[in-house]
Amino acid sequence: NIQIYKYKTILKLSLSSSGLNNNTYSIMRSPNLATILVLLDVGGPANDKLHHRSLQFVLPDYTSPPLPDAVAATPPPFQSDETVDNARDLDAAGLCVGPDANYTACQIVFTPELDGGASNSSTEALTTGGKVGIIFFGGALVDPRGYSPMMRMLSDDYRIPVVVPIFTADMSFKMGVCDSGRLAQAQKAFPCVERWVLAGHSFGGIAAYNDAWSMAQQKDGTDIKGTIGDTIGGVAMIASYVRQDLGCGFSDFSSIGWEWLPFASISASEDMILNVTNYEAGQELLPYSPLVITKEIEGGNHGGFGSYDYSERETLLFQIDGNATITPEEQQSITAEIISRIASLAAEDIKMEPGSSPPSPTNDELGTKAPSKQPTTADQVFPASTSPTYKPTELDTSGAIHKSLVSSFFIAGSALTCFLCY
């Protein structure tokens, strides 16, 4: 039984023991049915409770709220819950994608500070000259403002333009929807940016790499860099991994043609949410390239990549995270530095001659394949005059009911996948 409300999606899924057959789910043709009857990755002792004759799942009306420091770090007017709720409604109605989308109302924009020589404790402030930006996809059921402190590090300390899209139900990836469509909105916010780094935490990491993969698959030809290299500058997956059970085909960045793409895979030693077995398997699907950075942050946990209250996730979502031995600020600072390195590699590639590649990273304090060379400051400083001004959109729900219902079906399936399989 599926009941859909404006802010609440309840999915009750009953499956007999004979129905737990991967082949049954993999051959489903209907998009809606495939969304609901998702592949259940339920192996292992921790998931023995799922092997009952009848399974019932209830998705709670919940999203992890931002902590006060995260709200304070969020640009106005998105410090207001009402403004964020309006953006969620716009996305549910399909009004955050397409040529008529209000790009100022559907995403949080972090504009780099231009004055002063801001720096963090480990490296001098970087700049990509406004030529490289970051699109950051938040984790499932996490208020997007929960990542504002780390986005501030990227925009203020590293002077990189950052965009955080807002999605209905705070689900940045919808089952079977392989392109978020948010690149165009980010480009409207920062028209001077030439390349974008797609980054995401947890389920948001899946949205990030799927955007890059799907854009490459939409065009014929084997020259992947020639197809998307003038737009996509890199990918950064945080506490996330490449998966093959999400209705977007087989994604394999280790295949020929992806060697040019700067790619980061970041994890934390005390993360008890991430499926370690699947994460390690997913490492084999990253590009075979010296432009790949892998890093496990010692002492960090899953929630430490953001600044949100995840105390209720244990009782509502059955997620029990590990105990961090470092502060969230320390964990986010390391993460921001790695993401900035990916952005700097993209900036280097812009300045290279056609057909050449940016300098290969070398081992340093960041991890296995972290770049040691700082980028040369670009001549063009990011222009403050291009900072977008928020313009609210009045939502006309009369023509958006169908889109909202369809979106809810996809969200329900995506959330179920997230809870059971991650």
Structure description:
- This protein is an alpha/beta fold.
- The protein has helices at residues 22-26, 31-36, 68-73, 81-92, 148-157, 183-189, 203-217, 224-228, 276-282, 313-317, 328-351, 401-421, and strands spanning 2-4, 9-11, 107-110, 132-137, 162-165, 195-201, 232-238, 263-268, 292-297.
- Helix 5 crosses helix 11 (328-351).
- The longest helix has 24 residues, at 328-351.
- The protein is globular and about 45 Å long.
- It starts with a strand and ends with a helix.
Labels describing this entry:
422 residues, alpha/beta, seven-stranded mixed β-sheet, two-stranded antiparallel ribbon, 12 helices, 29% helix, globular, disordered N terminus
Summarize the structure.
By secondary structure, this protein is an alpha/beta fold. Helices cover 29% and strands 11% of the residues.
Topology:
Elements lengths: L1 E3 L4 E3 L10 H5 L4 H6 L31 H6 L7 H12 L14 E4 L21 E6 L10 H10 L4 E4 L17 H7 L5 E7 L1 H15 L6 H5 L3 E7 L24 E6 L7 H7 L9 E6 L15 H5 L10 H24 L49 H21 L1
Parallel strand pairs: 4-5, 4-6, 6-7, 7-8, 8-9
Antiparallel strand pairs: 1-2, 3-5
Helix pairs in contact: 5-11
Instruction: Report the sheet-strand fraction.
Output: 5-15%
- In terms of structural class, how would the helical and strand content be classed? alpha/beta
Rg calc: 20 Å
Strand order of the largest sheet: 3-5-4-6-7-8-9
- Average predicted confidence as pLDDT: 75
Separation of the first and last Cα atoms: 24 Å
Question: How many distinct beta strands?
Answer: 9
Would you list the SSEs in sequence order as H and E?
EEHHHHEEHEHEHHEEHEHHH
Given the C-alpha coordinates, what overall shape results?
Answer: globular
